[in-house]
Backbone:
């Protein structure tokens, strides 16, 4: 009787502690003698520091140090932070310094740090630092930045363009030359933030006794953070430990190693005291990475039946002041454009421009929402122009299951071909349509209209290259008490990795999930790790957990077979014991076996044995896995206010093997909430000088529980052939097509007004502006108000 | 041009820090908020605790807690400490509790602990604890204890005999029945201590933030200590870390996990503050394990040419109050008896008796000095009786090199046959004799006698089963900065393990020894470890280092070959770089390769690659390796005072492959010093009630630099076939035969008085007593005084 854990709706083992206030987040860390840091940040979007006078700040009560760039170790003074995920081409891009030594390129860029007895004293003292700046012209929009005559976003650079590249399939010019229909469309998605509940933060302690520098950071990437610390502080990797304690959300912004983490570490080493810094929400608005600003100008060529012949055009990506993940986002957007559709010809000209805005890097979806938005809006346009039902049009264009594995014809920036590994896109869409009762929507809409209500339905499909390498490792060890320890570099930020990995281990070793003790987020727990981003943990750490557990199981059975003098095939591993299947059912507990496996001091081991019941496996996927899904959303638009109410939200989702439906459903639900924010609410606003205008939750709106419906979810499972678990990724699919689906639904609701909606977020103001262009609007509004 | 490090006389990398005061020993550890512990110990060798009144102690200034057994966690209250190296038979033996709950069985047994702001305050308060004891009769000698009518050493036990077993080869009765000559001899070696420069000590800190309990202990066995802590504190092994900082000598007593380590940990957990305890010298005399008390009554049967036909008799071993390593010592003694000699028949009847003395466990040599003493004294007796030169007699009896591997016919307690793996005993002895100019000694002796001086020469041979399993592991990793990190569970206590392991790694990877950063003595450094005892590190961790380095080298070359597009055979790994042997000599540094080997976040790895340039190897020897040696010592005895002066000390030594002659020579020199103490000085004295009489270095004499000569050393290397390095062990060979050789030399010096010396230590008093039995003594003394 085997324990069936993979695929089971297992309650998250993380939750009891977190829900009862026993979580240990970064700000819960209090070390003896700990000091507190506050950063002095640039008030200008662009300027040059002429001088810094810290005299008054140093005299302020409780202040231990004021550090500027000049006070940092030499290497930190002169070295920009490395890019996180550099391409094999090792392009040169702008990244920040730990503290700006001379030039500041966005509002909020760290200029100095005050270390004091409390955060209050540190902030007060920071206000006493006098910095003399030469203000320089700032560029607050990538379209402006891309102009040749634009002021330079970084002093002395020859252009604001960070790169320009092409993504191509086939011969787009030829396809467009002969196409029966071509439709062109501008599209834009605006910048927003990640806004994890917990902001960023770091505590550093330098203590040679425990082996050196320990940095606790609210990060998604402890192992990468460690590498950067070692490089920039010139430390032996063995004397640096990074711990991500409980982390209250990541969503991408915490997959960047930030100047503040480095400065806090350097300050702790310099002062010989632990130093803590916790980002406040205003700092998060100013300095955590942001994403989405892309301008697309694309056209689609189709035949008379709406079959896609080609897509071409250009895309302009806002890189912000720095590019911590280099060109990852625009590349991802470019290769995501084809989506689940056969695209015989494609020619996208991508430009990345620096601006004097906060650095741009991945936020849940990471370039994909923009590409999906572009493609899905184009398809809606085609459907409207040719009078084809939107679902039917998509159906006609799907890559078919029997075409898998399907090379799209694109290559990624690492030079590898983009190949969809598995999936059944037509079935996924059918499931979503059925669950949403799409066939009946015409009736519902007619009924609503008769009541003066404007409802609409939207569809969007996506594929997502997720589960990217290079690897993630898992160590599994049977402990002396019979419990199983599992360690991995897969640092969680709330996804339930502990539960998911425990399930794989528990099923393989046929133990209770509670008996698997999972240690994550600590660079001391496993030699190597990458981190949590790109929906990569299930497809990287998952197979590693499987591989490690299988090897440990083989060791268990081999040892038990010898000790019990019973062939392996006659043994049962069950409930933490190995027993002989027949006879007297003599057996040994896993704890006893673990002790025996360690051998006895001074006694030789059985020839060929290796000690211990443990194994570490690093699974290295040969390529990304490609999950997919269909979102169908039903909305009602209040044409008087422009308010949008989501009536129903359906997701059909294929992330390969579903290890825990509860977790996947949670990811989808949360992802959709994120997507609703993107579609309707979240707008990070700046004035023309690059001054942020929305720096609190009164000005920047997040979707609340009254806005976000319970998402209804259907799963299809087409296991990935890329890894033995068949797992893909589930972290971002809730977000990626949401804006496309919601805007589609709004447009559909506003069909009587022939609204054309090609941006997000779509605020009430924008909707009203669009409605006002319709000759039908005034009369409809009168009817609605009367009714 | 390969780096030749193995076998080189490399300066110890440990020494610059240690010699310049930068060592970090246990007592150097100071943690914020740390409290200090002092133990209240039993003043009786045997008694029952009626009541403990801690009121006054609790009221004393600075006292935070007074803990007795009743105040410990339940598991600690009721569980005796485990045996360290239990035999597969899992015999039940007496071990101590953390704190004596009821019965005390030796003077010094911990009864309570006071935790206070300082050690002074803690000791003062400990003096205020009132314990009401019922005194019970104590047994202070194992010969008394073995008597049926003796008082019981432990209340309620049916006998003081812990075990009785036999070691046999062939048919001893038959051999003795027909032997031309049989000689019988009583022998005795007395109890002494280990006396590392640094006493024991422990600091415990319980901090969930850093993952739980950290115990710093001046121990030889951090991994075993961790297992015991987990078991007895019911802790998840992942939340316990044991660190052995710099340790000032071990010699065996620190290969035991002691009650104090456990109590300090429990106190730190209970109080939520770090707690430190450092053993003072008096405590070390009372409570650190002691060794050597064995009574041998054996006879040897030889033919007319002095060839050994058999040995038989009995041995009584003093176990002290507890047996932390079970019967390890008497078993080792029993199988060591045959030594390098062919022994066709053997029958030793071994009894282990408890006494009310400090627990007995291994001190450098661990049972072997006693067995070698017994055999070598018997051979000297045969030589004298049959008029054969002592060296010649031994030569006639050696196992020959062409008999290797040589099963002695004995089995060890794990049921495995005792098999000598390699060695050339005749050559080893010849080398020693030559170096000592043995052939000329007769002339020197005659010359001295003519001057009224009494000089003698002694010879002793030994073999030592060392390098025992079960394993020791080594992890090797190339760091991003190109340096190599090596980690192992092989905790050093001054042997130079870091240098030795770095040599193996450096030679294999062809880097400088300084570029190998070695981390030892930390259970977080490597998943599994055993510890340092039984001269086992070179033969266990050594081959692991070799294996791990070889695998890492293969990874380096494979990766470099692909990146440099050059076949592996055309690559040179040299000076931390891999370069193409031909052409432009393009290359990559180890640091660059390490970075490339980690892969790039989000980028798939080359198919088949595993990330990182690292490997962990656990070498598991199939059996012990058997090193051997010959000691030849020349002494002068002052017949007026009984004083002995060592004129020359020669060791010929075969420990297989010599990895670092400087280190091996140091081990031999130190070991001989230890042996000189055993032979002449160290006498741990007790009164008949078990009260220790020698509890400081005024009463208990250690060999000082004026006593210990510079040992002259010759090496023979017969590599062991048990491991690929060919290494055996070198830590104890300096000690094992020393007492036998020195007593032989003294007896030889005193030939004119026909002295019969069959015990150690041989104090001046004993020598004089022996001399006084000689009719020649008075006259000789007169002549000497006159001269």
Residues:
């Amino acid at each position: 009787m085997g324990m069936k854990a993979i695929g089971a709706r297992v309650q998250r083992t993380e939750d009891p502690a977190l829900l009862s206030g026993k979580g240990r987040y970064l700000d819960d860390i209090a070390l003896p003698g700990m000091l507190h840091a506050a950063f002095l940040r640039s008030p200008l979007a662009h300027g040059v520091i002429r001088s810094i006078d810290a005299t008054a700040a140093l005299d302020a009560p409780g202040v231990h140090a004021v550090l500027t760039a000049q006070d940092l170790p030499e290497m930190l003074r002169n070295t920009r932070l490395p890019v996180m995920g550099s391409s094999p081409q090792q392009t040169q891009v702008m990244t920040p310094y730990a503290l700006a030594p001379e030039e500041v390129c966005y509002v909020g860029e760290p200029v100095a740090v005050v270390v004091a007895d409390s955060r209050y004293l540190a902030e007060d003292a920071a206000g006493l630092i006098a910095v003399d700046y030469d203000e320089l012209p700032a560029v607050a929009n990538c379209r402006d930045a891309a102009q040749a005559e634009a002021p330079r976003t970084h002093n002395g650079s020859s252009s604001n363009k960070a790169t320009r590249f092409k993504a191509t399939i086939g011969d787009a010019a030829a396809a467009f030359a002969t196409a029966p229909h071509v439709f062109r469309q501008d599209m834009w998605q605006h910048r927003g933030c990640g806004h994890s509940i917990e902001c960023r933060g770091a505590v550093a302690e330098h203590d040679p006794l425990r082996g050196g520098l320990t940095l606790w950071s609210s990060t998604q990437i402890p192992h990468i953070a460690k590498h950067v610390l070692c490089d920039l502080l010139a430390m032996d990797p063995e004397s640096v430990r990074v711990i991500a304690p409980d982390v209250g959300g990541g969503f991408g912004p915490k997959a960047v190693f930030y100047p503040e983490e480095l400065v806090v570490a350097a300050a702790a080493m310099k002062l010989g005291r632990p130093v803590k810094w916790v980002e406040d929400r205003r700092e998060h608005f100013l300095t955590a990475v942001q994403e989405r600003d892309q301008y697309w100008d694309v056209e689609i060529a189709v035949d008379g039946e709406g079959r896609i012949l080609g897509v071409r055009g250009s895309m302009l990506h806002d890189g912000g002041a720095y590019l911590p993940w280099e060109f990852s986002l625009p590349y991802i957007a470019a290769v995501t454009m084809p989506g689940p559709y056969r695209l015989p010809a494609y020619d996208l000209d991508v430009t990345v421009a620096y601006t004097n805005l906060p650095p741009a890097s991945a936020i849940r979806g990471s370039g994909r929402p923009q590409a999906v938005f572009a493609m899905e809006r184009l398809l809606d346009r085609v459907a409207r122009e040719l009078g084809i039902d939107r679902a039917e049009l998509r159906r006609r264009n799907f890559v078919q299951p029997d075409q898998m594995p399907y090379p799209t014809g694109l290559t990624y920036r690492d030079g590898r071909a983009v190949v969809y590994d598995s999936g059944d896109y037509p079935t996924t869409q059918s499931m979503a349509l059925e669950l949403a009762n799409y066939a009946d929507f015409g009736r519902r809409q007619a009924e609503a209209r008769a009541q003066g209500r404007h409802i609409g339905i939207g569809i969007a499909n996506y594929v997502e290259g997720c589960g990217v390498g290079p690897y993630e490792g898992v160590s599994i060890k049977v402990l002396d008490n019979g419990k199983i320890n599992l360690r991995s570099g897969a640092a969680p930020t709330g996804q339930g990795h502990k539960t998911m990995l425990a399930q794989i281990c528990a099923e393989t070793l046929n133990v209770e999930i509670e008996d698997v003790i999972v240690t994550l987020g600590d660079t001391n727990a496993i030699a190597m790790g990458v981190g949590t981003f790109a929906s990569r943990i299930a497809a990287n750490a998952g197979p590693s957990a499987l591989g490690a557990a299988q090897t440990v199981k083989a060791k268990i059975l081999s040892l038990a077979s010898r000790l019990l003098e019973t062939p392996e095939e006659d043994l049962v591993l069950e409930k933490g014991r190995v027993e002989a299947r027949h006879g007297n059912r003599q057996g040994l507990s896993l704890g006893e076996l673990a002790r025996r496996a360690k051998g006895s001091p001074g006694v030789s081991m059985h020839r060929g044995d290796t000690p211990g019941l443990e194994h570490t496996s690093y699974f290295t996927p040969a390529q990304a896995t490609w999950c997919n899904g269909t979102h169908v959303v039903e909305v009602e638009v209040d044409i008087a206010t422009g308010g949008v109410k989501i009536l129903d939200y359906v997701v059909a989702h294929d992330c390969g093997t579903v290890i825990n439906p509860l977790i996947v459903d949670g990811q989808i639900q949360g992802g959709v909430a994120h997507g609703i924010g993107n579609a309707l609410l979240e707008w990070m606003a700046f004035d023309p000088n690059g001054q942020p205008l929305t720096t609190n939750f009164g000005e920047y709106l997040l979707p609340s529980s009254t806005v976000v419906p319970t998402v209804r979810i259907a799963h299809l499972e087409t296991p990935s052939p890329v890894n033995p678990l068949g797992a893909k990724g589930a972290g971002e699919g809730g977000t990626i097509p949401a804006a496309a689906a919601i805007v589609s639904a709004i447009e559909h609701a506003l069909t009587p007004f022939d609204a054309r909606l090609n941006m997000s977020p779509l605020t009430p103001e924008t909707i009203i502006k669009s409605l006002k262009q319709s000759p039908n609007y005034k009369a409809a509004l009168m009817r609605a108000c009367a009714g």
Remarks:
- The two ends of chain A are 64 Å apart (CA to CA).
- Chain A has a mean pLDDT of 95.
